[in-house]
Design a protein that fits this description.
Strand order of the largest sheet: 17-14-16-15-19-20-18
Largest sheet: 7 strands, antiparallel
Number of helices: 43
Number of strands: 28
CATH topology of the largest domain: Alpha-Beta Plaits
Shape: globular
Number of domains: 6
Helix content: 40-55%
Radius of gyration: 30 Å
Strand content: 5-15%
């Protein structure tokens, strides 16, 4: 493959990735399979795709197209070359608002498309649960559906035409054609292809009528039913929809749009038993909802254990139901929606479910008329797959029969019979998804690391698909065929239609260049050599820094929690994953890093992969924001995993000078602060910044924090105080006014304030050492601080600090690093605003704050967001009279400690800031406060917008002075 890689590098503008680490990252999707490609191409323009296909044909290497890599059946992994369309080929080429049409590139993400359509009152209504990362090309290749398909149908109904590249390199337009003219016309190869497909449809019309499932959902095989005579025209594009990239590669897709659903009402129907929910569906659909979605008791239980979902679930779930049905109405008239919601209550009562009637069963409807509440509920439902996969054991709910669709009257018996199948195979299953169309995503819980689990996989699949065939349903109702279901087509459709599928593939791609062995001529679905856990799968034991005991397999088990569903690929909302948002590289993504770690920990990337330069390149742009820990439903904690890599590298190779300077800052700061003119010389002497970049790798484009001579020093404080004030290194030596302001605010309350007492230099959280992998030093610093503050905490007091990354270290890392510290103790080390919010809520004295301005834009430090402590900031600032607080919807600011100062990461740091934070700050009015608790955040805002950002302590202190409250010395 070396020659092919070299030729590609010379002939295309895009990226050519044939190294082992890149190939490993693209060897998996969200399925159970793993197939290492020969290489990866990330095209910059479609001509790169053409050139890649030509060279691949010349070298007899197949091609597989890929969008978000979220396929659950193994469609987007294969041998040969994988082409990633998502990074560059993701634009809107045309938008016709009047006629509700758009022409888009295949790599465009659905949510990104809908964000651009929203101002025009339009959306693309195939609303898949993976909308934050699913691409239109992938959805087309998969014939995707969505929660509202009972109203809007499937992808095939919304694709008007496709500009595509055929296997022989021919560009072709697939769209509506006149049937009679096409059958007569044979002037070009493309016309002859169309003629043959229409002739095949006519020939197989009777067999299709007899065997084709008539369920709401069916995506198995090729859509040859669209080639059957049915009026004067046929849409040839429909043949490409659902073809999984086996017939052509899309260049652009013309799609049909719909008006947005601006008015909605949602009812959450509760059922004491699963079967009763299934029996109710056929009655509920008579009310003409746009969606009826199932949530089972397993999903409810697991969601309650995930921080980002817990509060929402507790608001819309009453009691302990076995099943919920989310029923949505979305008519233009909201009064009509509310009437239908009332009718839903009546229907449920008629079916025997009403809480307030002792004669009825324990069930009923919870109303959700508020759009914001509806959005939170739907977010829980759309994250159903990830929630189900949050089980920490090796046995997971697996996708292989999750696409079965049957007619609604058959749904109760069908689900009951499947439960019997699971019981006979010694397992149970989780259920969720599209009850309205008779398709439930059922996932049996199996361990594919064991032969018994693989055997059960085959046994359950065969029995389940037999039952589906008996009910004249479809075993492939939404997620496609890939490896997992292609071999079962003959069971459902018969040998004649399977031979017709083979004929289609042969006619389009006689040499098998495009994604071979999918849909036709598939491998066995239980071939372990194709699985993520092959027979020889085993992890290499290694010592770890953190305690990973919450996972049965330790660090390796924590890494394996990544299910590849790609929630980290979202481009807006929340904070995850900032480096991916800046670069759009699979490498710079939580999923990409987790895959790399898993392959390294199992020896699949070589014996020294874990400490290799390639691994460091993988981790280089991880800013340790911890957003993945909170926002990934699997809670993949990449920040700690990066520390494991850094520690292993430090042990093997030592720590470089720049990293050591950053790490040792708390040790030399007391001495350097005595000569601030010398410490600041790097930014005052001509040429010094340039020299620091050449010698240390500190970007000359970035000014370093300014040392102060008037450092913060603690007065002698009584150790029996209620609260200890912990001054971190940054606010002590660089911004001491913040510490002084915080002390003034705390003294204006009714607490007894003290300060930790220690011999020698000030206390430290150890954070800077963690960032360099110097974990022994980090532990020593944490231990020293823990010993100083433990007596106050054990006495029921609290410790208050200012810098989120420092304070929250005691809540996150410390309990897994030092033995005499636990999470309960860590919870009492609090940010200033956390403590004040708690203190005020418990009846403590609120200082007499005065008005200081009208608006404050609030940017949250990543660790504040990850620890879910942004609420207290807003509650405390609400105590300032007349001040309106507006949170900035932003990801990481991009500075991230030393990250923004490094020459090699400076550009990406700037890109992260420009994603949303810096534009929002520049757009703010001149008299608005910019509030940011993080030292790094304030520096990024200052450098990138030339606006001063201040700590919340400064805002409170100004309000304190405006209120005329005098400080009093109760230390």
């Amino acid at each position: 493959m070396k020659e092919l890689a070299e030729r590609l590098s010379h002939e295309i503008e895009g990226e050519v990735l044939f190294d082992a680490f890149s190939r490993g990252r693209y060897s998996t999707d969200a399925s159970i399979y793993q197939i290492r490609p020969a290489g990866v191409v990330v095209p910059r323009r479609f001509s790169d795709v053409e050139a890649t296909l030509a060279l691949a044909r010349e070298h007899d290497v197949p091609i597989t197209g890929r969008g978000g890599g979220t396929g659950q059946c193994g469609q987007t992994i294969n041998r040969g070359i994988v082409i990633d369309f998502s990074k560059h080929l993701n634009g809107i080429r045309e938008m016709d608002v009047e006629n509700r049409r758009a022409v888009v590139e295949p790599g465009l993400v659905l949510d990104d498309l809908n964000r651009q359509l929203k101002p025009h009152g339009l959306w693309f209504p195939v609303d898949v649960s993976t909308a934050s990362r699913a691409t239109i090309g992938g959805m087309t290749a998969n014939n995707s559906c969505g929660s509202r398909s009972i109203r809007y149908g499937m992808m095939r109904e919304h694709v008007h035409s496709v500009e595509a590249l055929l296997a022989d390199g021919t560009r072709a337009t697939f769209g509506p054609v006149d049937r009679a003219d096409t059958l007569r016309n044979e002037q070009t190869a493309l016309q002859r292809l169309f003629r043959d497909m229409l002739a095949l449809g006519a020939r197989e019309a009777d067999e299709i009528a007899a065997r084709w499932p008539q369920t709401y959902r069916h995506v198995a095989g090729y859509n040859i039913d669209a080639m059957v005579p049915n009026g004067p025209t046929n849409n040839m594009a429909t043949l490409l929809v659902g073809s999984e990239g086996t017939l052509a590669l899309s260049e652009s897709i013309e799609i049909k749009l719909s008006p947005t659903l601006d008015t909605k009402a949602l009812g959450i129907c509760h059922f004491p038993s699963f079967r009763e929910a299934m029996e109710a569906v056929q009655h509920i659909v008579t009310l003409d909802p746009v969606a009826v979605e199932l949530v089972d008791e397993n999903m409810i239980r697991l969601a309650r254990d995930i921080a980002i979902f817990r509060d929402t679930v507790n608001q819309f779930v009453k009691g302990e139901p076995e099943a919920l049905l989310l029923v949505e109405f979305a008519e233009p008239d909201q009064e009509e929606n509310l009437r239908r919601l009332a009718a839903l209550h009546d229907l449920m009562a008629d079916l025997g479910f009403r809480w307030d009637d002792p004669g009825k069963k324990d069930g009923g409807v919870i109303d959700a008329p508020d759009p914001a509440f509806q959005a939170r509920i739907w977010n829980v439902r759309t994250q159903g797959l990830n929630i189900m996969m949050s089980m920490k054991d090796d046995a997971k709910p697996l996708a292989f029969i999750e696409d079965c669709a049957v007619h609604l009257p058959d749904l109760p018996d069908f689900t009951a019979r499947l439960n019997d199948v699971f019981a006979r195979n010694g397992t149970s299953a989780t259920w969720y998804a599209h009850a309205s169309v008779g398709l439930l995503h059922v996932r049996p819980v199996l361990n594919l690391k064991q032969e018994a689990g693989v055997k059960a996989l085959r046994g359950i699949a065969e029995e389940a698909f037999d039952i589906v065939a008996e009910y004249k349903g479809s075993h492939s109702g939404e997620h496609g065929d890939g490896i997992i279901r292609s071999e079962f087509h003959e069971k459902m459709l018969g040998s004649r239609l399977v031979r017709a599928f083979e004929e289609v593939k042969q006619r389009f791609d006689p040499d098998g260049v495009l994604n071979p062995n999918r849909i036709v001529h598939p491998p066995k679905m239980d071939d372990r050599t194709l699985m993520r856990y092959p027979p020889d799968y085993a992890h290499v034991p290694r010592e770890t820094v953190f305690d990973w005991g919450a996972w049965p397999a330790g660090l390796h088990g924590a890494v394996e929690m990544c299910n590849n569903n790609g929630a980290c690929r979202k481009l807006a909302g929340g904070a995850m994953c900032p480096s991916y948002r800046a670069t759009r590289n699979e490498r710079d993504l939580t999923r990409g890093r987790a895959n790399t770690l898993r392959l390294a920990l199992t020896g699949q990337l070589g014996p020294d992969a874990f400490t290799s330069d390639e691994m460091m390149e993988t981790m280089k742009l991880c800013v340790s924001c911890k957003a993945c820990k909170r926002e990934c439903p699997m809670s993949v904690d990449m920040a700690k995993m990066k520390i494991e890599v850094l520690a292993a590298r430090a042990e093997k190779y030592g720590v470089g000078l720049r990293d050591r300077l950053v790490a040792e800052l708390p040790r030399y700061a007391p001495w350097l602060s005595k000569a601030p003119f010398l410490a600041n010389a790097r930014d005052t002497l001509p040429g010094a910044a340039w020299l620091s970049e050449k010698l240390l790798g500190l970007s000359a484009n970035r000014r370093l924090p300014r040392w102060r001579s008037d450092v913060f020093r603690e007065p002698n404080g009584a150790m029996d105080a209620d609260v200890l004030f912990f001054a971190d290194t940054f606010n002590r030596y660089f911004e001491p006014d913040n510490a002084r302001a915080a002390v003034e605010v705390l003294r204006a309350t009714d607490i007894r304030l003290g300060f930790p007492q220690t011999a020698g230099r000030p206390l430290c959280c150890g954070r800077t050492y963690l960032s360099a992998g110097m974990t022994d030093r980090a532990k020593a610093e944490m231990q020293r601080t823990a010993e100083a503050i433990r007596p106050t905490i054990e006495a029921g007091g609290a410790v208050v600090g200012l810098e989120p990354s420092c304070v929250l270290t005691f809540r996150d890392e410390a309990p897994r690093l030092i033995s005499n510290w636990n999470a309960e103790m860590g919870a009492r080390v609090m940010l200033l605003e956390e403590f004040l919010a708690e203190h005020f809520a418990n009846g403590g004295t609120v200082p007499a704050f005065g008005p200081i301005g009208e608006t404050a834009l609030l940017h949250g430090h990543c660790h504040q967001k990850a620890a879910d402590v942004m609420g207290p900031v807003q509650r405390v600032l609400a105590q300032v009279p007349g001040l309106e607080v507006k949170p900035i919807e932003s990801s990481c600011c991009g500075m991230a400690g030393a990250f923004g100062y490094q020459a090699e990461t400076y550009d990406v740091s700037q890109q992260m800031g420009e994603l949303s934070l810096l534009p929002a700050v520049r757009a703010a009015s001149d008299d608005a406060f910019i509030v940011a608790d993080g030292t790094s955040c304030r520096h990024q805002i200052g450098d990138g917008s030339h606006r001063e950002a201040v700590h919340v302590a400064q805002i409170l202190h100004r309000a304190l002075k405006a209120g005329g409250t005098a400080s009093h010395g109760n230390a």
